[in-house]
Amino acid sequence: MVTIVKRRLLDILACPICKHFPLELLVFEEREEIDEGLLTCKNCGRWYPIIESIPHMLPDELRDEKEDLEFLKKWEKKIPEPVLRNGKPFNLK
Question: By three-state DSSP, how is residue 93 classified?
């Protein structure tokens, strides 16, 4: 099942690693849904990209490092410095 990110669905999302709730949202592009953005967990420091309206909320070992690093570089000017330098599982440090 694919979850399209609408703001009202954010109330039910929790970090898949530490189960922290709620996640913080940064929106980079939005039309009817959030097209591109970032979900961050303040508890464990992980971040999850929203790409083409789909949140990529996988455990660390299943994430695509190349895709995640490309996302960080694409949105570098809009992503907070702590995520860019210390975000888990990947960062631009």
Answer: coil
The Cα–Cα gap between 33 and 41 comes to 21
Average pLDDT over residues 52-70: 95
Residue with tokens 């070992």: 61
Question: So where are the chain's domains?
Answer: 7-86
39 to 26, 51, 60, 83, 86: CA distances (angstroms): 7, 11, 15, 10, 15
Tell me how many degrees the CA angle 44-45-48 measures, rounded to the nearest 5: 110
- Structure confidence by residue, pLDDT tens digits, 15-50: 999 999 999 999 999 988 889 999 999 999 999 999
